[in-house]
Specification:
Blueprint lengths: L2 H11 L7 E4 L2 E4 L3 E4 L9 E2 L14 E3 L16 E2 L14 E5 L8 E3 L7 E3 L3 E5 L7 H7 L3 H11 L9 H5 L2 E4 L2 H40 L14 E3 L4 E4 L12 E4 L3 E4 H5 L12 E4 L3 E3 L9 E3 L5 E4 L4 E5 L5 H8 L2 H11 L9 H5 L2 E3 L3 H41 L7
Helix pairs in contact: 5-10
């Protein structure tokens, strides 16, 4: 960050407002910017979407845009789209310049600016549409206004009026937007769009690397491709005899660190998952899990809640968890790669059939057959797959930094702390 920008920020924090800035209902803005309500920069007042039920996706029907189809970045999620089959669908078709807001629940405030590349979209009833007037504003600029700290504060303030978060069309219409000269709007929108493109490209690269790793795992973990210098017959062996259940209890109550196992983060402190400790006051019956041991929740194994303890030396788990470790001849890191693969998740339904509430017992886990080469080859396979993991982690860190940079840039540009030439 340039020295002059740092000085401006420090001056503002100390209560000294630069001569070219002023306070407004939309936060701090340059003195030559105006404030307009969302209704004033729209072609009409906000309207609610279709209330009909979604149907299975079809190329012959328009796509149904629902709250769940918009990600945190305000983009269309294309993984599980649905369609809608109604005679008056044209009344709800989105067009260029349409800005959509979520109006209820935990997603209140989430926004999406229609992009023709997303195809025909009919917006649903839990969404509100404002058709922006492109002669008055740059539509992308207005969308970026919904990414500022001031907007997020406004949403939390409006939603705090009742137990159920929600903002209606009249209230959205009164949202105050800082409006710079049109040329400056265009410049700000172009700068932030450049960041969005960089973020999108990084996400695509991460997706590609993850797919490459999945393909690599499938070939290496079934013995289709062998590591250089290793050959011999490929055979599949049951895990029985290679893994052992562990049932050490915290009888003396010396251990106090309570852990949970999640499908996304693996082993975490219980308070990191629930924002507080939910464990029983009496921890004497809790299981102790040690580093390089595995644990899983039998009723959540179907979503991948299983992990190898690496982060902590030891910890406690609720008695419902299954804890186990590898015996001689099986590397914990090798087994970890298998348990985190699509092959394991896809095979799970066969093990869960007939079980109570889709739970996986340790005895059933032991029945799984996997390719178990020599320890030397296991270690070579692990090295290859861990290198792929490191590459993905590095890219994810770069993505995180790009998003942080953009977030900071939004604040600087939308408050006028940093000005651009129109």
């Amino acid at each position: 960050m340039k020295v002059e920008i740092k000085k401006r920020i420090e001056s503002i924090k100390s209560g000294k407002i630069p001569n070219d800035l002023k306070y407004s209902k939309a936060g701090m803005i340059p003195i030559n910017w105006s404030i307009k309500k969302l209704n004033e920069i729209s072609m009409s007042k906000g309207t609610y979407g279709a209330t009909d039920a979604a149907v299975e996706y079809s190329d012959n029907l328009p796509t149904y845009l629902r709250i769940t189809d918009i990600d945190d970045e305000g983009r269309l999620i294309k993984d599980s789209l649905k369609s809608v089959d109604i005679p008056d669908y044209k009344n709800y078709l989105l067009k260029e310049g349409d800005l959509i807001f979520a109006r209820t629940g935990s997603t209140t405030g989430k926004s999406y600016l229609y992009d023709e590349k997303d195809g025909q979209l009919v917006y649903g009833g839990f969404l509100i549409k404002f058709s922006l007037n492109a002669e008055k504003v740059n539509c992308r600029y207005v969308k970026y206004c919904t990414e500022t700290n001031h907007y997020k504060y406004w949403v939390s303030l409006m939603s705090a009026r009742s137990g159920q978060p929600g903002i209606n069309s009249q209230e959205y219409g009164k949202l105050e937007i800082p409006i710079p000269p049109k040329g400056e709007q265009n410049k700000i929108a172009n700068i932030l769009s450049t960041w969005d493109k960089a973020i999108e490209l990084k996400e695509k690269l991460i997706h590609q690397k993850k797919n490459q790793k999945k393909a690599l795992m499938k070939k290496l973990l079934i013995g289709e491709v062998r590591m250089p210098g290793f050959n011999g017959q490929v055979s599949y062996k049951k895990l029985k005899g290679y893994i052992k259940e562990c049932n050490v209890r915290n009888k003396d109550c010396k251990e106090t660190v309570v852990l949970s196992v999640t499908n996304k983060q693996g082993f975490i402190l219980q308070e990191e998952q629930f924002d507080r400790k939910v464990a029983s006051k009496d921890l004497s019956n809790y299981k102790i899990v040690y580093k390089n041991q595995f644990a899983y929740n039998p009723s959540r194994i179907n979503v991948g809640s299983i992990d190898l303890l690496k982060r902590f030396e030891k910890g406690l788990l609720s008695p419902m968890y299954v804890v186990f470790e590898c015996e001689e001849g099986l590397s914990p890191k090798y087994l970890y790669q298998y348990l985190k693969s699509d092959m394991f998740l896809n095979y799970l339904p066969n093990l869960l059939q007939g079980s109570v509430r889709d739970t996986l017992s340790f005895n059933s886990l032991e029945m799984i057959k996997i390719f178990i080469p020599t320890l030397e080859e296991q270690n070579k396979i692990v090295e290859v797959l861990e290198n792929a993991d490191k590459e993905i982690s590095l890219l994810e860190e770069e993505l995180k930094n790009l998003k942080l940079q953009k977030k900071g840039l939004v604040q600087l540009l939308m408050t006028g702390i940093v000005r651009v030439k129109s």
